[in-house]
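Milestone M4 deliverable, item 7.
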Amino acid sequence: MASGKLTRAATQGAKLVVLYGPQAKIVWEKGGKQAALAAAKRAQALNARRKALNHASGVVDGSVLKIAPEGLAVYVVFSGETPIAAYPPQETAYAALLEHADLDKRVRPPQPGTRRRGHRGAAGPGPRELS
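Output delivered:
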C-alpha cells in the first residue's frame, strides 16, 4: 500500500515538473542570480565595515565615516581629523571622496569589553526572583 502512494506521488511530481519546469527554471535563474549578487554585495559591505572599525580602534583618536560615492558603501578611517584609509580600498583621493561628506557623522569604534544593547550574547536583566 505504501508503494502505491509513493508511485502516485512520483507520477504527480513528474507531471508538475513537465507542466511548470520551464517557468520555474526561468524564475530561478533570474531571481537566484540577483539574490546571490545582492548577498555578495551585502557581505562585502559588512566585511569592509568590520575592517574599518578594527583599523580605527588601533589608531589614536580613531573614527569611521560611511560614504557612498558611486552607490557602493565606502568606510573612511580617520586618525583625529586626518583620513588614513578607506575600506574597500579606493583609487580616488581622500579629498575627492570627502568633498561633500558631513564629517560630523563619523562614529567611534566600540571600546574593548563593551557590548551593544540587545546584541546577541549580551547579559540580560538577570534571573527572576521567586516569590
